[in-house]
Amino acid sequence: MDRAQKEQVVEELGQIFESSGVVVVARYEGMTVAEMQALRAQMRDVGGAVRVAKNRLAKIALEGKPAASIADYLTGMTVLAFSEDPVAAAKVADAYAKTNDKFVILGGAMGENALDPAGVKAVAQMPSREELIASIVSCIGAPASNIAGAIGAPASNIAGILSTLEEREAA
């Protein structure tokens, strides 16, 4: 890898560290290519990505970035999992670590906040952006449906009373 290629990698990593909602650092020593491809596919499905980079280049890219606190985790065979959604990469990494003993979460960063392995697990348990939007929409829509039900209820009650009266007269 020549100097120009290294500069390009540092620039790409810098953009990742700056624009990602969450970055998870994990050790992947002993994983097979198939296992790594499975992880990449799962991450791609949620809009995230997995990147293996030289630790030295990643540390250079981290200088001056909000996620600079994760530089200490970059030792040995490390992989970066990241996504714009602040929860997606952590969810996938946590779920994958449960099924594969060779994938060990070291920590991560969420903006300027450093995360230890327990922090990554806590972020993974948070609802995703889509889940939050759905719950907000349901909260906004609930009063409207309650009002519609309250307005329609007297009419249905009157209809029920009328049908009961008709049955009594018929009997």
Automatic annotation (TrEMBL):
Keywords: Ribonucleoprotein, Ribosomal protein, RNA-binding, rRNA-binding. The keyword Coiled coil does not apply. GO terms for biological process: translation. Pfam families: Ribosomal_L10. One of its GO terms (cellular component) is large ribosomal subunit. InterPro entries: Ribosomal_uL10, Ribosomal_uL10-like_sf, Ribosomal_uL10_bac, Ribosomal_uL10_bac_type, Ribosomal_uL10_CS_bac. It comes from the Bacteria. CDD domains: Ribosomal_L10 (cd05797). The keyword RNA-binding applies. GO terms for molecular function: large ribosomal subunit rRNA binding; structural constituent of ribosome. Belongs to the universal ribosomal protein uL10 family. Forms part of the ribosomal stalk, playing a central role in the interaction of the ribosome with GTP-bound translation factors. HAMAP family: Ribosomal_uL10. Part of the ribosomal stalk of the 50S ribosomal subunit. The N-terminus interacts with L11 and the large rRNA to form the base of the stalk. The C-terminus forms an elongated spine to which L12 dimers bind in a sequential fashion forming a multimeric L10(L12)X complex. This is Large ribosomal subunit protein uL10. It comes from Paracoccus alkenifer. The lineage of its organism: Bacteria, Pseudomonadati, Pseudomonadota, Alphaproteobacteria, Rhodobacterales. The gene is rplJ.
